[in-house]
Amino acid sequence: MNDIRMIVPTSQTARAAQVKTGAGETNMTRPGRILVVDDEQGISDFLLFGLRDEGYDVMCARDGEEALELLERFKPHVVLLDIMLPGIDGFEVCRLMKDRARVAIIMLTARDDVTDRVKGLVTGADDYVVKPFSFAELKARIEARFRNQFPELSAVTRVGKFEVDKVQKLIRYEGVALGLSRTEYTLLEILLETPGVALTREQIMSRVWGDDFTGEDNILEVYIRYLRHKLNDTKRQLIRTVRGVGYRVDLQ
């Protein structure tokens, strides 16, 4: 059994990608599909929950045959592929996947052997990671695959410590997905368009809820409270109330 203690999720506790928001809405963020192919349950579980925590849609396979079946059904963008698999080994699975689909493959192995790395790259692998590895390193390599091979899924704008993905409707703060509802995302995206500049209550209400909104008068304040909670902005230093005007985001 390989040592998996160094494979750790993000700074937040790993959670399912489906997040229940303070507004009573459910948001599923899917910036891309990842298939984990590894017959070690501990590694698969760490990667499954860690990557779902990052907002990815993730499935796992225990062997090469199942992986090839999921390639057709799940259509992953990135495959994390262990070399030592029962039945068909990882090298052959890699070759078959590359013949059948547009997919990025990151090989996983416990052996830091140049021959294995070369063989993996020759069969079509796009990257190579040796176990044990840090989750942060793996995450960076996965994001590089999306940027380089699936740029249509990585339309990310960086604003200070925020990352706004307008294609996937996803916002991260300090590298952690916030798990926002659709309304929360829209509100924060608008505030991040003009950091340091206060938007009036009327400007925000019009863009988020429309000019014909007839709901509760304090709806904006309620959603600002939701955002502050998810940002851990207890001192209101990120989202500031500008008295007599509205709200602004201050980058730290």
How are the SSEs ordered, and which strands pair?
Elements: E1 18-20, E2 26-28, E3 33-37, H1 41-53, E4 57-61, H2 64-73, E5 78-82, H3 90-100, E6 104-109, H4 114-122, E7 127-130, H5 135-149, E8 156-159, E9 162-165, E10 170-173, E11 176-177, H6 182-193, E12 199-200, H7 201-209, H8 219-230, E13 239-242, E14 246-249
Parallel strand pairs: 3-4, 3-5, 5-6, 6-7
Antiparallel strand pairs: 1-2, 8-9, 9-10, 10-11, 12-14, 13-14
Helix pairs in contact: 2-3, 6-8
Describe the structure.
The chain has 252 residues and is α/β, with parallel strands linked by helices. The chain has 2 domains: 18-153, 3-Layer(aba) Sandwich (Rossmann fold), CATH 3.40.50.2300; 156-249, Arc Repressor Mutant, subunit A, CATH 1.10.10.10. 36% of the residues lie in helices and 22% in strands. The strands form 4 sheets. The protein has a 5-stranded parallel sheet with strand order 4-3-5-6-7, with helices on both faces. Strands 8-9-10-11 form a 4-stranded antiparallel sheet, with helices on one face. A 3-stranded antiparallel sheet has the order 12-14-13. α2 runs parallel beside α3 and α6 (182-193) packs across α8 (219-230). Residues 1-30 have low confidence and may be disordered.
